[in-house]
Amino acid sequence: MGLIIRGVLVMLCIVTPVLGADLRMGRAAVDITPPLGMPMGGYYSVRLNTGTHDPLYAKAIVLEEGGTEAALVACDLESVPRSFVDAARLIIQKTTHVPPENVMISATHTHTGPEMSHFFLDRLEGPPGQIARDYRAALPGKIAEAVREAEADLAPTEVRAGMGRESTLCFNRRYLMKDGTIGWNPGKLNPNIVRPAGPVDPDVSVVYFKAAPSKPQATFVNYAMHLDTTGGTEFSADYPYTLGKLLGEAKDSKMLTVFAIGTAGNINHIDVKSAEPQSSFQEAARIGTILAGDVLKAYPRLTPVNGHLLVRREVIKLPVQELQPGEVEKSQELATRLVREGPEKFAFLDLVRAFKVLWVAEFQGKPIDAEVQVIALGNDVAWVGLPGEVFVELGMAIKAASPFRYTIVNELSGDVIDYVPDRKAFAEGTYEVVNSLCAPGGGEALVDAATRLLIDAYQSSTH
């Protein structure tokens, strides 16, 4: 069966028709840290890696009930393009019992990981270009290895879930300005800021797996905030590194902490009301420490999770934006000059628009095949996987519409389709809109698809 089904709306429904079967889980982490000299994430700048502050991993949780398996994989990467997801799923299909459509592969969106965009890497010459090509060729196998090792680790588990709240770390980075426009990251203490243009999502989602008698296996954490706090040219998982380190020290050194980013397309850690610098490994450690405290406070309040393992998947069509005559040729020239000359000679939004144009051109007018996934345990917990950097308003709409007690939305899952704003943001403009592939309404279509899958999974779990 093909991994990606092309055509009109497609829906795959995988139900686990078992009664009384015990849930098992396995976990594993595989090092995916690139070698020295690998281009760093962010294709608007030419940065070569100079070292590693903390290693990058592909972390996998495999769930099994009655012979049906599903996998949640979080990679310490800026993004995981569809080509890598497809390749990893193909290997997983050959080496495990997990069906490819039951594998949710997400990126944490760390900005201090390797560059993943082929628009930049395909134009890179010399040793850095070869290092990047070798790394990309090996990455799907390493992602699949994490799933294979997690499956081999399967053991009976008890699951508990709940929510912490953390509203002091995250900020909506779009602001209404005094001139009526919307400013994107308008700067600290900017006197022209009126107020944030949107909300934040304070939920700290926690799913805790333990083996009897009370031996920690894994903790899954989701929080909606960009991983762009360290800066520099050293590889780092950003604040989830400290989060996992501290939870391991508090619970068990062998417990695996898996972090997935929530819908944070317009959310970051920059407090514009403070003049304090916020780009350093110390800042990442501060954030990770606070989040670890939130999770530790949530542990005693977590509630038992029961019910069958269910998986849903749907592929919907998202129309791409229209291009103007001559845009592609101009963008190709700019992209080539960027690699040779560096970003300093170009206006930032010109770079953003150029790479967006090249990406849109690859679709040749055809819509984006956007995969939406749901992995659920009974009627208590549901994970939702969405492609792209999704605006927080859209993720919150999915949570509000979901019938599950706890709904966890992972962005940058299954593919990267750049930013997915809501309709309101398209009317307002600025960076994320310029950097969006899909036409207005694409975000709301993802919400509708996720809601359909959640309701269907919930209804199946209660019958």
Number of strand elements: 24
Structural class: alpha+beta
Question: Low-confidence parts lasting 5 or more residues at pLDDT below 50?
Answer: 1-21
The percent of residues in helical segments reads 25-40%
- Main pleated sheet: 5 strands, mixed
Number of helices: 11
Question: What fraction of residues sit in β-strands?
Answer: 25-35%
Cα separation of the termini: 29 Å
Overall shape: globular
What's the arrangement of strands in the largest beta sheet?
A: 1-19-20-21-23
How do you describe this structure in short?
The protein is of the alpha+beta class and 463 residues long. Helices cover 31% and strands 27% of the residues.
Describe the SSE topology.
Blueprint: E1 10-14, E2 24-31, E3 51-52, E4 57-65, E5 68-75, H1 82-95, E6 103-107, H2 118-121, H3 126-152, E7 155-156, E8 158-165, E9 171-172, E10 174-177, E11 182-184, E12 193-196, E13 203-211, E14 215-223, E15 234-235, H4 239-250, E16 256-261, E17 267-268, H5 281-298, E18 303-304, E19 309-318, H6 327-341, H7 348-362, E20 368-377, E21 381-385, E22 389-390, H8 392-401, E23 406-410, E24 419-420, H9 423-428, H10 431-434, H11 442-461
Parallel strand pairs: 3-15, 5-6, 14-16, 21-23, 22-24
Antiparallel strand pairs: 1-19, 2-4, 2-7, 4-5, 8-13, 8-18, 9-17, 10-11, 10-12, 13-14, 19-20, 20-21
Helix pairs in contact: 1-3, 4-5, 6-7, 8-11
